[in-house]
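Re: Re: ligand-bound prediction request (bumping)

Still looking for help on this. To restate: I need the protein modeled with zinc ion bound, output as structure tokens. Inputs repeated here so nobody has to scroll up.
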Amino acid sequence: MALGIARVRYVYESIQRGGDSLAKVLVHSDGAVTFECPGCGERHAINTNQKHRWAFNGDVDKPTFSPSLLVKSGHYVNGRTEGECWCTYNEKHPDKPAPFKCYICHSFVTDGKIQFLSDCTHPLAGQTVEMLDEE
Ligand SMILES: [Zn+2]
Ligand SMILES: [Zn+2]
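Reply:
Sorry for the wait, this slipped through. Here it is.
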């Protein structure tokens, strides 16, 4: 089923740590930076090494990215007219729902904090929270 954004599983090739504190993000050898989003409960990946890249301050303890991060899934990508999405899938399969949801996650990541904008569809919309530590 082809739905919304590509979900990539990264192998953590390089974990860069600064000092003794735990990193908030993982930096991968291909330039992607990933973090666990407390609003979505899943990892978001930020491409920092290709043409339309985000700027990353390189600090894994207090990461800053710009511009803002906007992640969309399911019917928020193409609109509900495109047919199936995670909502319709889960309506059809109430006994075996997919582990995904349709969502919008829009945030500014600054100094290790995530400012979720009000258009997020998750409960942390409008709040600013500390990023989670990587294990
Ligand atoms: Zn998120
Ligand atoms: Zn949906």
